[in-house]
Protein: Agmatinase
Amino acid sequence: MRFDESYSGKVFIMSRATEEEADAVIYGMPMDWTVSFRPGSRFGPNRIREASIGLEEYSPYLDRHLEEVNYHDAGDLMLPFGNAARSLDIIEGYLDELLEKGKFPLGLGGEHLVTWPVIQAMYKKHSDLAIIHIDAHADLREEYEGEVLSHSTPIRKSCELLGAENVYSFGIRSGMREEFQYAEESGMHMARFEVLEPLKKVLPELAGRPVYVTIDIDVLDPAFAPGTGTAEAGGISSKELLASIHALAGSNLNIVGADLVEVAPAYDPTEKTQIAASKFIREMLLGFVK
Structure:
């Protein structure tokens, strides 16, 4: 069984009935096996779905309605608890199938390590792939406490696979000194602290290229998103992240997939984190799936 059937009644608002009729597929990656501080992001995908019921189906930002996008919510992948390597293999295998069918994948995390197998699958499909990474953390470590499979490593792994010059990080405000040194020396593109303005500057050079977008909810200041495992003060607002998503949507990029990760609902009894995340997913669907 690939998907957790216990979530079968909880889908993102206006999900179509079958994968076959869909242009885009939402899927959950409920894994938090390698987190370095607070666990709980494995519950993020389902809570984002539940929060989506409060959304309007129409976006006044993009003047589009969810009925204009054919998408299917496949549910959460069944990932073996505590087994990071096997979980990543399952994710990569599923992405291989989605891409073979020509679907636009939109993933819900889960910790940020789940992005790594997605990038591997994407690279097999798009050899000139670029990544836009929006996050509080650099995620450029080679390992964490001796573990090479860690949510602090996916962007370093992506740099080594794609070439660092094809990785663009925004909003970064936390990391080891060595991570920032690597960013400067490797040729990758890193914008510290801010997202929208530096993002706008690089969009022209990425025009027409296949681009994968990964967003860690902790790029937001904890005032806007306390429900995350590794909250980091000094972040951007929900308004700025929405504007950044819209800048991507209005660009000439060939966005081939995306994810939103690290929502950990237990730390936010107000539910504003998952409410915000569900709105970001709506805007990504309407803006990225043409």
